[in-house]
Amino acid sequence: MRQHIDARWSTHVNSPQFPEHTSGHSVASPAAAAVLTDRLGTFAFTDHSHDVRGHAPRTFASFGHAAQEAARSRLYGGIHFPHAIAAGLTQGERVGALVLQRVHTRR
Is the pTM above the cut of 0.70? Predict the structure, then answer.
């Protein structure tokens, strides 16, 4: 980045010590969203988990919406490239579907 685009560029996140493909957040988030949506339904919610750090609350239209933003954050953080995020989202959707197919709970 510094060599080819902007010599002053800096990241707030250190270079991760794990493989780039696929993005773990992009896998886990839609998998969790699929299960949560199936069990709880689709509804808007507001996340206050970072209030103590001085960050504004985040409102999401659904668990899926939150999952998409979590995946996209990996690009903005300089952690993953778009192809790893896209592949992770697909993988996560498939994992969520498989969990729903194989795991049976009482509602």
Answer: yes
